[in-house]
Amino acid sequence: MSKTRIPLGDNVYLTYVPAVKFKTDFLSAQFITPLRRETAGLNALLPAVLERGSRRYPDMERLSAALDLLYGANVEYTVRKRGENQLWGFVATCVDGAFLPEGRSLLGELAEIMGDLICHPAMEDGLLRGDYVRSERSNLLDAIRSVINDKGAYAGRRLLEEMCAGEPYGLSRLGDETSVAAITPESLTEHYRQQIASARLELFYCGRQSLEEAQAACGRILRDLPRAGAQAPAMVLPHPPRGECRLVREAMDVTQGKLGVGFSVETEDRDAALVMNAMFGGTSNSKLFLHVREKLSLCYYASSSYHRSKNMITVSSGIEFQNYQKALDEILRQLDAMARGDWEEWELEGTRSCIANGHRSLADSAGRLEDFYMGQIATGQDQEPESLLEAALQVTPERIMAAARSVRPDTIYFLTGKEDAHA
Amino acid sequence: MREQVYTRIGETVWRDTLPNGLEIRVISKPHHVRSCAFFVTRYGGMDLRFQLGGRWVDTPAGIAHYLEHKMFDTEDGNALQRLAKNGAEPNAFTSNAITAYYFYSTEHFYENLRILLEFVSVPYFTAESVEKEQGIIGQEIRGVEDTPDWQAYTRLMGCLYEKSPARVSVAGTVESIRQITADTLYTCHRAFYTPSNMVLSVVGNVDPVRISQIAREVLSPERGEAIPRDYGGEEGPAPVRRETRLAMEVSMPQFLAGYKCDTPPEGPEQLRLSAIGDMACDILFGDSSPLYRRLYEEGLINGTFGGNFDILPGAAYLYVGGDTEDPRAVHRAVTEEAARLAREGIDEDFYQRIRRSAYGQMVRSLNSFDTAAVAAAEGVFHGYDYYDFPAVFETITKGDVEDFLRRYVTEERTAISLIDPKEGQ
Predict the structure, then answer these.
(1) With b meaning 16 or more CB within 10 Å and e meaning fewer, what string describes A189-204?
(2) Cβ of B33 and A361 within 8 Å?
(3) φ, ψ for residue B95 (rounded to 5)?
(4) CB B145 to CB A357 under 8 A?
(5) pLDDT higher than 60, residue A422
(6) How much is the mean pLDDT over chain B?
(7) pLDDT tens-digit series, residues A183-192
(8) B175 CB near a chain A CB, below 8 Å?
(9) Which of A316, B151, B185, B327 has a CA positioned 20 to 30 A from the CA of residue B23?
């Protein structure tokens, strides 16, 4: 696999990855724009409204019909947060012509549909259709409120919100209720025009088609795109460490408590922090899994994530309410074990293998490759999975210990039951 | 080992049947970096009552899943760690019908395969290790109890079925798993983890002959006895209850409605029925259906709306659900639309479009190693070849889908499970 990245126009790039192993063509168009409180909801709403209808496909039934005819091709809008940018756009796939009765490629037609959604949305009186805007605004509000339905995800969201209050990273990719409720067809249309004219546009293709064919397909998206001005993605800033660890406790009518612990990482040796985190709580053989779950039977899951661009770590676990202190103590004890180099040889070996698997197997999924490269671009990096892996494999035990010593508890979030609220 | 090439979908599958009855399927993917091996037993959450050595045995709800957790314990430690040391990513899951143990790896594939086959075929439990798992699984159960989707599903099954163990949650309850002991786990292992009740399916850039050799070396030469199971017997078409509701900490009401279908056939007919059921769902309430558009435009449904056709041991049902302010109106609209389609017939153009789309989706599903491996195993258990789907598709007619809707998606066969937001939120 060899990736090619080429400019296709003003602030527009194509990342091309040839692959014969998939049954499908994978095409993505992502606008990358700084994550801000005032615009987060607008960016989240925009692709949902665009997907409702375009000049050629004025309603969802006609759009679906066109996709059905392309053997169940799909075009889905996406809204992501990577670093301190928001990515909005469309991801589309269709079955490769080699596996279809007619034997011809559908990529061009798929790109044509995507281009129509992006460049020619259904309008009335020069504005995005009011009924579409209102209906998707209401759906987006439902989606923002429904984060509470999944208690684990809710606790994760709340931890980031508390820990990164005042930083763009603390914002939700979907925006907040108040600003979404205030969106009108006028404000969304204005935002739409600004975005498609000047936001960074990153295209991605993975499949059997040649670079020239992929470029030609992208040409169908770009043909009618009015570009003017060039807005760069935001630079992401690391999380500023807090002097003293803060506890936030919230009560709900639930049967299981959710514990989230956020840590700031002070070392700039991010490769070492990555390996340290994987060994601490990033794999199914990590310290947290083996001790908090397997040895103490405190939970079904306990794991940690390293937010590389922010240089911070978050731990999450689902526990009984009364085990709060026990679980928290054990999490900190295991972090201390990392700082002291208290691990067996196989733990480090297993962690390295796991990291290697993760990086090498990116190439087996077009979707994961797309997410990887978009993430690199949105966080101002230009690395390949191989080079990141190489750097991680060179991390020594000393560097791991040093990274662990630079980790500071920052914010604790605990979702507890109502009867436990005053405990 | 026999090789079969499926030119229409660009796949190559190797097959073998060992003298001990184990079926092996190897799906060749020469360009992929990762490979995976799934070792699957036909034993799931619904296999609670079965016959072993001529005697009926009743076991507590959640035992197949509990056994799955405990299988990773070995006499000299833990199989998860052994696999991890070797660079594999191991995992397992238990569904209603099967338990699957698997790993993905980019290196040391054959060593890892040996470990997988060893730890799944050799049980090692102690009273202490079984006791210890109560806390972990107890928290897993508590976690899903707070999940509205799980509540809606479990409660719907309780409405649809009278005797079928589909009523019972795969993980059991905190109370039911307390009855599980090392002895009951050994009994279930002896009954169901025999080569003739299992399938090894491998996907990746691997050598099929070597895989077959390793399986011959590691596994017992004994077939094990055939195990009759009791799924509660024939059920009538009507649900036992029409409705259930529960208040939870959710942002808006949600529902899951089910339509009870007849006991599914075994063999190639099951694959055909499954394709008909999927198409019936697409036509009735899929993204491009007139009903979807109408309900969406009326603001009654959003992107969470959808459903599917599902086949369980001795049972089958169609389900549909999502978040909505008016669950009953949406449920009624689905039932009425099915009646209309059954009465007036499906529009021919629409049918042809859905047929194309359904075919494309099946081809697309082959991108997923999980899907390929599990579909191969289920094909063995139920007597069909999943990769025959292009030919199966050619035998399906518009009339088949209309019949399906007419018979099953009716007022008589349906029940609804509602989740309401807690008061005062």
Answers:
(1) bebbebbbbbbbbbbb
(2) yes
(3) -110, -170
(4) no
(5) no
(6) 95
(7) 999 999 999 9
(8) no
(9) B185
Q: What is the mean pLDDT of residues B311-333?
A: 97
Pairing of strands A127-128, B73-74: unpaired
In chain A, domain spans: 4-222, 246-420
Helices A324-340, A397-405: inter-axial angle, 10-degree rounding: 140
Q: Choose the mutation target among B302, B324, B368, B420 for the interface with A, i.e. most A CBs under 10 Å.
A: B302
Domains in chain B, CATH or no CATH each: 2-218 (3.30.830.10), 243-421 (3.30.830.10)
Kindly indicate whether the domain formed by A246-420 is annotated with CATH number 3.30.830.10: yes
Which residues in chain A touch residue B367, judged by CB atoms under 8 angstroms apart? 22-24
pLDDT at residue B425 tops 60 = no
**Between residues 327 and 386 of chain A, which touch chain B (CB distance below 8 Å)?**
346, 349-350, 353-354, 356-357, 360-361, 363-364
Q: Can you give the pLDDT at residue B85? A: 82
Asked whether the beta carbons of B172 and B66 are under 8 A apart, the reply is: yes
Interface subset of B 212-271, CB within 8 angstroms of A: 248-252, 254
Q: Which residues of B are catalytic?
A: 68
Residue A197 phi/psi, 5-degree rounding, is -80, -40
Residue B81 near chain A (CB below 8 Å): yes
Domain A4-222 matches domain A246-420 at the CATH topology level: yes
Q: Which residues of A touch B297 (CB under 8 A)?
A: 131, 135
Residue-wise pLDDT tens digits, A32-84: 999 999 999 999 999 999 999 999 999 999 999 999 999 999 999 999 999 99
pLDDT value of residue A1 = 55
Predicted local distance difference test score (pLDDT) of residue A116: 98
Task: Find chain B residues with C-beta within 8 A of A100's C-beta.
Answer: 360, 363
Q: Could you give the CA distance from residue B96 to residue A301 in angstroms, rounded to a whole number?
A: 22
User: Hey, is the C-beta of B293 within 8 angstroms of any chain A C-beta?
Assistant: yes
Helices (H) and strands (E) in chain B, counts: 14, 16
Which residues touch B316 (CB under 8 Å, ≥6 apart)?
B261, B262, B263, B264, B273, B277, B309, B310
Residues of B in contact with A98 (CB under 8 A): 10
Cβ burial B253-273 (10 Å sphere, 16+ → b, else e): bbbbbbbbbebbeeebebbbb
A178 shares contact with chain B (CB less than 8 Å): no
What architecture (CATH level 2) is domain A4-222? 2-Layer Sandwich (3.30)
Mutation for A interface: B107, B112, B134, B146, most A CBs within 10 A: B146
> Nearest CA of chain B to the CA of A230: how many Å?
33
Which chain B residues have a beta carbon less than 8 Å from that of A97? none
CA A125 to the chain's CA centroid: 36
pLDDT tens-digit map of A270-280 = 999 999 999 99
ipTM of the complex: 0.85
Its pTM stands at 0.91
Distance of CA A337 to the CA centre of its chain: 31
Tell me what pLDDT residue A352 has: 94
Residues A15 and A4 sit within 8 Å (Cβ to Cβ): yes
Which residue type occupies A227?
Answer: R
